[in-house]
Input
Amino acid sequence: MIKLKRTWCAVLLGLTSSISLAQFQIIPEPADVQLGQGKTKSLNVIGEKINSSLNNEAYIITLTPKGSLLEYATPAGKKFAEVSLAQLAAQLKNSPEGIPIAVIADQPQYPWRGMMIDVARHYLPLADLKLIADTMHYYKLNKLHLHLTDNQGWRLPVPAYPKLQTISSKRDEMEGNKIPTEGIYTKAELKELVKYCKARNIEIIPEIDVPGHNQALAAAYPEFFCDPEPGLKVRTTIGNSNNLICPSAKGVSEFYQHVFAEIRDIFPSPFVHLGGDEAPTDKWHKCPQCASWRKDNNLPNEAAQMAFFFDKMNTLLGKYGKKPLFWYENDASIYHPGYTVFTWRINSARKAVEHTKKANLNLILAPSEHCYFDFPQLPSHDKRGWMPVTTLEKTYQFDPTYGLPIDQRDHIKGVHCALWAEYLPTIDHVLYRAYPRAIALAEKAWSPKKVWSWENFQTKLHEHNTFFLNRFGHSLERTNTNEKPFK
Ligand SMILES: [Zn+2]
Output
C-alpha cells in the first residue's frame, strides 16, 4: 500500500475511504482509488511534484474540479501517471458529465512485466517492434524480450561473423509454405529501438539461445557444434534440433565474446537471456571432445556438463557486465544459486515456485497455460493440431501468488508472456494473438489481488477497444471469423 502524504488533496476533496472499482477505465486496475465528492471535466495537469516517499514506478494522480495533480519519485513514475491520464482522457471523451473526483495512488506488484517477441522464427521490421512497444507501454508492461536466435533464424548483427547475415538470417520457407523469410537488424536499428523503448520505460532483454535451438548458427558455422551433419541448413520446419554447441570446440568461446561485445554495445539491460531450454544432450554424450571436457572437469554426466556450461557462459557474460537469464527446465540443480529463471512448462509453475525458492533462484512466471499467446484464444482458432486453447478468461485466471504466503514467493520477480512465432508471420498475426490477453496479464502483473475482477476487467476492455483501434490500428475484438489465416 502506498503511504499517501496528502499535502494537496485529502481535506480539499473530502475523500471517502472506500476502494471503488469500475469508476475508472484504467487498465491495469490501480492499486488504490479513493473517491471524492463530485466530478471533473478537466484532466489538464495543474501541478506536478516529486514525492520521494514513492517507489520507482509509483505515482499519485489527484483529480480535482480544476484539473489533475501528479506526484511521482522518478521519470518512470511520471510516465505511468501520464499513461493513466491518457486512459482517463479516453474515458472523459465518452463521459460528457465528467469523471469522478478522486485520488488514484498506484504502484506495481511486480517490477518485471514482460513480453517475449520471437523475431527468430519470423523477422519483424523495426517499425513493427516500435508498435509493439507502444501497445506495451499503454498497459504498463516494461520488458520487451527479443528472442533473436533460434533454429529458424539469426537476427543479431555480429560483423566479425558475416555468414550470420548471408546464411543464418535466411530461410527458404516454413513448413512447406514456400514463403522465403530473411532479415537481420542493423546495430543502428537496435540502438534506435533501445532509445524508443527507454522513452516508454521499457527495457529490452536480448536472447541468444544456447546450447540448443541453434540450427541457424550451425548452418553457417558448423565447426562450433558436436558432430554437425553435412549440408545442414537453416531449419524450415518447427520442432527441436538436436544440434548443440560443443562447449570446448575451437572458436566457440571467441564467437560468444564477439556476440556479447555487440550486445553490450547495443543493449543497456544488465541481462542477457541465454535460453538453455530444450537441449537434448545425445550429441554431447557421443562427442569425443565433450567426453574429454567432462573428464577434465570432473563432470559425471551431461546434466553436470550443462550446469558447468551455464556457469562458463555466466563468467563470460560477466566480463561484459551482464547476467544470464534461463528458461527453467524443472531441474533446479543445473542453475547456480542467484540465477534468474523463467518457468514456462505447462502446469508446472506451482512446483517451480517451490523448487526455485529452495534452490535460491530468482523466478519469473511465464506458465504456458496462461502466458503463451501463440496459443489460440478461441476454440475455433487454428491450433496447428496441438496447442491448448487459452482464452482471455484463462489468462485472467492467472494468480501469480499461487495462494502462497509472501515468504514462500518473495523470489518471484515478475510475470512474462511469450509469443512464439512459428505460425505468426506478420505483425498482424502477432498483435492478434498478443491482445487482448497481454492486457489481462498486465493487470495480473501490476494490480494487487484485492482489485482483480473479471467482470470489471471485461467492462473496461470493452471501453478500450475503440481507443486501441484508433491509436494502434488493431481491434481488441476476437471472433470466430476475424483472425488472419496462417500461411
Ligand atoms: Zn561436443
In short: The chain has two domains: 10-106, 112-453+467-472. Residues 177 and 487 are 6 Å apart (CA to CA). Residues 112-453+467-472 form a domain with the TIM Barrel fold (CATH 3.20.20.80). The pocket of zinc ion is lined by residues 226, 246, 284, 287, 289-290 (CB under 6 Å).
